[in-house]
Amino acid sequence: MGTIGRKIVGMDLNELIDLLNEALADEWLAVYQYWVGAKIAEGRMRPNIVKELEEHQNDELKHANMLADRIVQLGGTPLLHPKDLLEKSGCGYKTPSNSNTVELLKQNIEGEQCAIMAYKKILDKIIGKDSITMNMIRKIMEDEVEHEQDLEDLLNDINLSK
Question: Rounded distance, CA 8 to CA 59, Å?
Answer without folding.
Answer: 29
